[in-house]
């Protein structure tokens, strides 16, 4: 059962979705940081600031934004899927993006012919970056160390799928260097 505060937060988020959003340049002040123990309710997201997600191959939130799949907040804020580091969920364990974890949704899978796939992130607010990690299940298949530098958009990483075939879900994680935050993006592939 949702608390009164959570119901109010959901109402605010639903109202915000129906309004238009103004993009803020990448050099704008970052949104407030959320501690590991603090819940990130939809109303606590700064709707004016943007962050980043995998745009190619099309991630789940990119599919939401393109209206291929019905996804709630991810349809208007694909770049805002943020949680604490070290999670293995498409939503970043953020309740506002819970739909991204739903394996019963018809997520489109990008067909790839090779074990080598280039993942491209679009960043609309850049942060000092620790690492970019890629997982299939709980196995990390690639890591790119940014050594705390601020990346420029777009960011591309070439990842080896390690001979895996069939339908694959790759979890891409952008770990921010100077906070406990990470941005999460799941990409469905057919190899």
UniProtKB/TrEMBL annotation:
All residue ranges annotated as the Chitin-binding type-4 domain in the record: 51-189
Statement: the UniProt record of this protein carries the keyword Signal: yes
Gene3D superfamilies listed in its UniProt record: chitin-binding protein cbp21 (2.70.50.50)
InterPro entries assigned to the protein according to its UniProt record, in alphabetical order: Cellulose/chitin-bd_N, GlcNAc_Chitin_IntDeg, Ig_E-set
Keywords linked to the UniProt accession: Signal
SUPFAM superfamilies: E set domains
Pfam families cross-referenced by the UniProt entry: LPMO_10 (PF03067)
Signal peptide (UniProt feature, chain positions): 1-28
Top-level division of the source organism's lineage: Bacteria
Full protein name: Chitin-binding protein
């Amino acid at each position: 059962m949702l608390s009164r505060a959570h119901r109010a937060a959901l109402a605010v988020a639903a109202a915000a979705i129906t309004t238009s959003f103004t993009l803020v340049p990448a050099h704008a002040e970052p949104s407030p940081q959320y501690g590991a123990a603090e819940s990130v309710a939809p109303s606590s997201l700064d709707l004016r600031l943007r962050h980043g997600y995998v745009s190619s191959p099309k991630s789940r939130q990119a599919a939401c934004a393109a209206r291929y799949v019905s996804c709630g907040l991810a349809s208007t804020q694909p770049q805002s899927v943020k949680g604490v580091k070290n999670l293995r969920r498409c939503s970043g364990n953020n309740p506002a993006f819970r739909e991204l974890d739903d394996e019963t949704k018809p997520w489109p899978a990008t067909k790839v012919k090779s074990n080598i796939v280039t993942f491209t992130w679009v960043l609309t607010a850049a942060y000092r970056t620790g690492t970019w990690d890629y997982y299939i299940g709980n196995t990390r298949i690639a890591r790119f160390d940014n050594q705390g530098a601020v990346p420029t958009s777009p960011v591309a990483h070439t990842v080896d799928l390690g001979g895996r075939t069939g339908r694959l879900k790759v979890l891409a994680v952008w770990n921010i260097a100077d906070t406990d935050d990470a941005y999460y993006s799941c990409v469905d592939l057919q190899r």
